Amino acid sequence: MNRIDIKSLNPEQLAEFAVENGLKGFNAKQIYVWLHQKNVTDFDQMTNLSKQAREMLKEKCFITNLEIAQKQVSVDGTIKYLYRLPDGNCIETVLMRYEHGNSICVSSQVGCRMGCKFCASTQGGKVRDLAASEILSQLYATEQDTGERVSNIVLMGIGEPLDNFDNVISFIGIITSKDGKNISQRNISLSTCGIVPKIYELAKLKLGITLSISLHATTNEARKRTMPVSNAYPLEQLMQACRDYTKTTGRRISFEYAMIKGENDTQEDAVRLSKLLHGFINHVNLIPVNPVDGSPFSQSDARIIKEFQSKLTQLGVNATIRRRLGQDISAACGQLRNEHR
Ligand code: SF4
User: Which of 160, 238, 290, 292 has most ligand 1 atoms within 8 Å of its beta carbon, as the pocket-test mutant?
Assistant: First the structure.
């Protein structure tokens, strides 16, 4: 018999499971609180359940837990974790400390099949999707390790969240539930390389999260060179999906632009970028791209990035250069896992 991944069940699914197995509705709530507020790792820790109920849960379900395989702490307090999943695969999670609270960057897949040329996470392709419980456990394990609360979540680690749509949506449902961590949807950002049909699907859910688009180029030719997803979904389609998303959800979109030396950092790129963003609340994050082993791309010079930012400002686009936390431990996303592999 396949045991049930109980941490991936939302409150309604858990209530249904409880009743089907002879428990009461209030037992489901007790179990949910143990799993999602108290972060228990073992059914025997659920001390307000009868022994019989705990034995039934042990027989029919399992609790996903992560192990710390490696941990790097920066002088600025940023922590990068390599977490080992129950099947032995590893993923990365980063905790960033800001004045307004702790923010966590979580992975959504083991590896990634999107093939962005500047990204370490895609070297080796996608191994598998993460279950909702495995995305949740990154936050729970990090809170447990640090003893600190996490208030903001960024789905920007290893993997393309919209390529693991159902599990990512379940994750958002559970992490925002009132008997769980009760994190506001407004405090969650989801970053995508631009899987157009999934952007429309996401829009229909009308979530209060922030959608973030990794743009990284201003023409289809250039984008195809660095982001193969452009072969399937050219910029015109992507920007149309963004316009639709904003209209349907009433939420603004944030745009990310990785600055790659000699590839997308000219003044002409800045002009084209301002035109692409026309009609949106004009704000873009410029990200000095991290060097990745085996990639021909390197980050633009600081002067070029500044000039790019000034040009955008002149053109009425508000651009910020991303402050890089954890510089001393900042291997590019996916690199720690690659070393481990
Ligand atoms: S940048 Fe994101 S979507 Fe692209 S390969 Fe890396 S993890 Fe995948």
Answer: 160
Residue 335: helix, strand or coil by DSSP?
helix
Helix axes 196-205, 235-249, angle to 10 degrees: 0
Domains of the chain: 4-62 (1.10.150.530), 67-340 (3.20.20.70)
119 lines ligand 1 (CB under 6 A): yes
* Residues 248, 231: Cα–Cα separation, whole Å: 26
Task: Summarize the confidence of residues 107-136 as an average pLDDT.
Answer: 95
Q: Alpha-carbon distance 199 to 197, whole Å? A: 5
Interhelix angle 196-205/165-175, nearest 10 degrees = 30
Q: Which of 192, 168, 171, 191 is nearest to 183 (CA)?
A: 171
d(CA 12, CA 177): 11
* pLDDT of res. 336: 79
Among 92, 118, 122, 195, residue to substitute to test ligand 1 (most atoms within 8 Å of Cβ): 122
Which pLDDT score is estimated for 279? Answer: 84
Give the pLDDT confidence of 6-61 residue by residue, as tens digits: 999 999 999 999 999 999 989 999 999 999 999 999 999 999 999 999 999 999 99
Exposed / middle / buried, residue 26 (Cβ in 10 Å: 0-12, 13-18, 19+): exposed
Active-site pick, 61, 90, 92, 193? 92
Distance CA 61, CA 3 (A): 5
Q: What is the pLDDT of residue 42?
A: 95
